[in-house]
What does this fold into?
Amino acid sequence: MTWQNKFTSLKLNEKDALPELAISLLSSWKVITVSGEDKKSYLQGQLTCDVVTLADSESTLGAHCDAKGKVWSTFRLFNHKDTYALFQHGSGIEKSLAEIKKYSVFSKVEIEISDAVILGITGTESTAFINQNTETQGSVRTFGNGTAVKVDDKQWLLIIEEQEAESIVANFEGTLASEDLWDLYDIQAAIPRVTEAQQNVHIPQALNLHLVGGVSFSKGCYTGQETVARAKYRGTNKRAMYLVKGHSRDTLTGTDELERNVGENWRSAGELLAGYQFADNAIYGLIVLPNNLEPDTQFRLTSDPDSRFSLVPMPYSLEDPEA
It folds into this structure.
């Protein structure tokens, strides 16, 4: 058995405690790296987040949009070795790469998909594990020949070479879990995610990026900035990302759609951005919905009319902190 095949899906029920320390191979995720002397100025003119003020020891969420403000990709941006790294879901990565490279011919930059291995460290002991293996502090640290990035107190990323990843896995004393455990943490933290099916559909505010530090309204111009600013100052955005919970005997497929109850009828609500299904069929998911829905609105999977879903409290406020 190769080291990549040692990660197993955990058969968790909703009420089960999560592992105190787990590691996952994030094979569905990718990192785009941007290098060259113009890397900072180039990204500053492309991304919703403020690249200029980003400290070496910090990371930030952000988005890359088209000229109309529709999102091509959401990511976590940080310094990795001598590059900027954009950690994002791998679905649609080729289109994302093509779009962010579109104007690079006019700048001294190199933009490519990294071949580094991406590991996710999760659990209450994840920070202690990172502390034991790093000599510096901060949310972005040198880890061996790679980089460790803090997502929150229970989630860290490792961007490292394959030989180092193999060594870590071989000597790891926690749980080796498949990447759906990372999905569960992301979903419950309501971290914005865009996969191929959702590219060029939503503006950043519909994905709550302005609520989690992923949009700067003071940095100046960037691609799509006019639409993003108009949505804020004119109140034109009417959608937000929500956390929903329900039960279904149907297995999630990755292209799962919800319907919402309207009187005696059901109408399309949209596709889940991400979903996690427990062994007891409890499901958590993220979905973009109109931001004026009643809190007790009921939903169901289109594929399972007997299922029922409802909105659950978000881990952060949906009120614009700069409103």
Notes: The first helix runs from residue 39 to 44. Residues 57 and 138 are 5 Å apart (CA to CA). The radius of gyration is 20 Å. The chain has a mean pLDDT of 96.
